[in-house]
Amino acid sequence: DTEVTQTPKHLVMGMTNKKSLKCEQHMGHRAMYWYKQKAKKPPELMFVYSYEKLSINESVPSRFSPECPNSSLLNLHLHALQPEDSALYLCASSLSQFRGSQYFGPGTRLTVL
Amino acid sequence: QQQVKQSPQSLIVQKGGISIINCAYENTAFDYFPWYQQFPGKGPALLIAIRPDVSEKKEGRFTISFNKSAKQFSLHIMDSQPGDSATYFCAARVNNQGGKLIFGQGTELSVKP
Predict the structure, then answer these.
(1) B45 φ, ψ to 5°?
(2) Strand runs (DSSP E) across chain A, as ranges?
(3) What is the residue-level pLDDT of chain B in tens, covering all 113 positions?
(4) How far apart are the C-alpha atoms of A85 and A76, rounded to whole Å?
(5) Does residue A2 carry a pLDDT above 70?
(6) B3 touches chain A (CB under 8 A)
(7) Residues 6 or more apart in contact with residue B48 via CB below 8 angstroms
(8) Nearest residue in A to B49, CA atom
């Protein structure tokens, strides 16, 4: 089973709202990733967690706050977003940062009004 | 240079034909080269991947050819079908930067019946 699940599928939020995106995998993977993808562009890496610790932060604005409560779950907390943050947010996981392929979830389509 | 250059940007192929997508890189710290297929509104799905010590890998109708000396790799889709119409991304993993994936810009494939 190579499934990564993400909730919600769609999210519409105002610029003053606080919301969270959730990601879950049960493949025993110890690396988890958040990506942002704009239309007709490749995914852009935002954060990497390795063994539940933040390993890479690609200079993402602080209005995006990741959290890894355990080895199967990854959250992305959103606050005071801008309309230009509207995008498809993808979660991925791999065996480790340096081993195995990255498997992506279906994504959350975020619209910021 | 961390770029992966992908071509063509778009490709139209007749049903039953061969689709060929090419990628080139310069960074010798890349150690793993996956290809992803993405349908509109969905997350990227891992299609096939190769390591640089292998020159060719085949899975069903999909084949990766890898030329280490030329720093090029390509995806061949044999007997292309309308259901293959999607965006394809090549990628390369950087082994000295936390295993980050560097993506090509994508190829939009359309297979005409």
Answers:
(1) -110, 130
(2) 4-7, 10-13, 18-25, 31-37, 44-50, 53-57, 64-70, 73-79, 87-94, 103-104, 108-112
(3) 679 999 999 999 999 999 999 999 988 789 999 999 999 999 999 999 999 999 999 999 999 999 999 999 999 999 999 999 999 999 999 987 888 999 999 999 999 99
(4) 13
(5) no
(6) no
(7) B34, B35, B57, B59, B62, B63, B64, B75
(8) A101
Interface test with A, best of B35, B37, B38, B87 (most A CBs within 10 A): B38
Contacts of A90 in chain B (CB under 8 A): 43-44
Q: How far is CA A1 from the centre of its chain?
A: 20
Q: Name every chain B residue with its beta carbon within 8 A of the beta carbon of A103.
A: 46
C-beta separation of A56 from A44 below 8 A = no
Chain A residue with the nearest C-alpha to that of B93 = A98
Q: Do A45 and B101 make contact, defined as CB atoms within 8 angstroms?
A: yes
